[in-house]
Specification:
123 residues; mainly alpha; 0% strand
Length: 123
C-alpha cells in the first residue's frame, strides 16, 4: 500500500514537472500561426527521414545483439532496440548515462549480467 502511494506521488511530481516545462517551452508560441504552417508543410521528407532513422536504429540494435551472442545470451532484437532507445532518451537528460541505461534496461529484461553488457558497449 505504501509503495503504491509513493509511486503515485512520484508519478504526479514528474507529471507536474513535465507540464511546467511544456508551459515554459510553448508560452510564446502562436498556435494559430503554427497550425497554418503545419498545413502547408511537405511531410514526405519527414516520412523518408523517419524510415531511414528507424532502419539505422534497428541496425544498431542488431549489431549490439551480435556482440552479445558470443557471451552465451540470445536477446531479442526488439528488446535490444527498446533498450537502445531508452539509452538515447537518457542521454538527453545526462550525457553519457545512456550507455549504462541501455545495459541496465536490457539486463533486467533479458536476465543478462549488466557488467557483461557494459563490456559489449565498450567494445
Amino acid at each position: 500500500m505504501r509503495k503504491s502511494i509513493l509511486q503515485t506521488l512520484k508519478f504526479l511530481a514528474f507529471f507536474a514537472l513535465g507540464i511546467v516545462l511544456l508551459w515554459f517551452a510553448f508560452r510564446s508560441v502562436d498556435f494559430s500561426k503554427l497550425g497554418a504552417e503545419l498545413k502547408d508543410a511537405d511531410y514526405s521528407w519527414l516520412v523518408l527521414s523517419l524510415l531511414f532513422g528507424l532502419f539505422a536504429y534497428i541496425s544498431r540494435a542488431r549489431r549490439w545483439v551480435l556482440l552479445i551472442n558470443p557471451l552465451g545470451f540470445r536477446p531479442s532484437i526488439r528488446n535490444a532496440f527498446f533498450a537502445l532507445m531508452a539509452g538515447y532518451l537518457a542521454n538527453i537528460a545526462l550525457p553519457r548515462i545512456g550507455e549504462i541505461t541501455r545495459c541496465v534496461a536490457l539486463g533486467k529484461k533479458e536476465k543478462i549480467p549488466v557488467d557483461q553488457l557494459i563490456g559489449t558497449v565498450v567494445i
